[in-house]
């Protein structure tokens, strides 16, 4: 064995099997079977049976992707139509990556003629081959039969097709996790095999009583096994990917914190930011000169803001007025609105600052200026309820804070989302990522313990609790070692 303790994945795999053994799996199997049957009949009527094979593969890939995405975001049960892990657009992206990898792996079989549309003579060519060639082909076909879980894990973990060409992506997924990967196969094959063993004598007994009863029970059992096959494999792969990829898209390098988060919604408000807090050089190029059908775009936003900041030092009202005039003459610009928020706040014009913040944030989100949106929330923290931010917007801001190393702010913004929804998987995973990062920094394990403890107390019903408890135990151990030294 590679480890002397349970991994995060091995600690939850039993629950994945247990939770998927439910009526929801039967419903998913019936729905998925109905979709496949209708599609097959329609294509058969259209005299395109070969197309039906590919369409069926796409439908099955989409079902696996749906369950894998949901597993990635911590859903234990749920049906085929659950959207706990994200929209169907996200599922479509995972499906595309899964099918791409599957085709890339299986394409040699098609060139050899070993596929479902081959002539029987081609399928019998194996015995005529030399021993070594036949052994190589048999090994390749065996690996092909074992490839779907690996391909699905890689597809649901990737952000784009380029990840498939990255050695780091594959190493991050599977390095040191051979035992976990074996458990995916063991749990999947063992659970389905045991279900078949249980169903067989029941069906035989029903057949002895009446073939109609056996047919009915067989249909129910078949639908359940069909749904369980997709649900169990998808979720096992999703949870496997979750245990590897971290809690918010991977670990980031972060500087030390100047303040410590207590992860509560009534945390002390962050200190107001300076009007010059965010440098403009990194933001000016992508935001200027973008075509729109409305007012003209501002070509020199950085210069306008810099001039206003200089003027603000001697005449705040005039500086604010100059930027307000720019806003009236040109299309809304994140930098102009951001500067107006900060200047109005520093000039003690709080109501105007709130008004400008509510106008600025949608523009920042639409234009991808997340660092500016993050600083606006930091500046207006005392007035955060008045900003009417959606959970999705809060998560984007929290991610921006996390990426820039402002972990205290990131944890508190994630906590705002958790306050409204104690089982919000993405927010919980965000706090877990912050805690994981803190646990890896010298002298910060105690802060990680606080965050994990907050999650354990505030989110007792989350399906991610076993991950939280595991992280808490590790953080406590690290903190104890640090304290002893």
Protein described:
The chain is mostly helical. 69% of the residues lie in helices and 0% in strands. It contains 20 helices and no strands. The longest helix has 35 residues, at 211-245. The two termini are 30 Å apart. Mean pLDDT is 79; it is low at 1-6, 120-124 and 244-292.
Q: What is the topology?
A:
Elements: H1 13-20, H2 23-45, H3 49-72, H4 88-112, H5 120-123, H6 131-157, H7 167-174, H8 178-209, H9 211-245, H10 281-287, H11 301-312, H12 316-329, H13 334-346, H14 350-366, H15 370-379, H16 391-403, H17 407-420, H18 425-439, H19 445-458, H20 465-484
Helix pairs in contact: 1-9, 2-3, 2-9, 3-4, 3-6, 3-9, 4-6, 6-9, 8-9, 11-12, 11-13, 12-13, 13-14, 13-15, 14-15, 15-16, 16-17, 16-18, 17-18, 18-19, 18-20, 19-20
Organism: Candidatus Polarisedimenticola svalbardensis
Transmembrane segments: 26-46, 53-73, 93-112, 182-203, 209-230
Region (Disordered): 252-302
Low-confidence stretches: 1-6, 120-124, 244-292
As a whole number of angstroms, the C-alpha radius of gyration is 28 Å
Tally of helical segments: 20
Mean pLDDT: 79
The run of helices and strands is HHHHHHHHHHHHHHHHHHHH
Q: Please state the overall shape, judged from the principal axes of the Cα atoms.
A: elongated
Helical fraction equals 55-70%
Task: Kindly report how far apart the N and C termini lie.
Answer: 30 Å
Structural class from helices and strands? Answer: mainly alpha
Number of strands: 0
The main pleated sheet reads as:
none
Measured by DSSP, the beta-strand proportion falls in: under 5%
Organism: Candidatus Polarisedimenticola svalbardensis
Region (Disordered): 252-302
Protein name: Tetratricopeptide repeat protein
Biased composition (Low complexity): 270-284
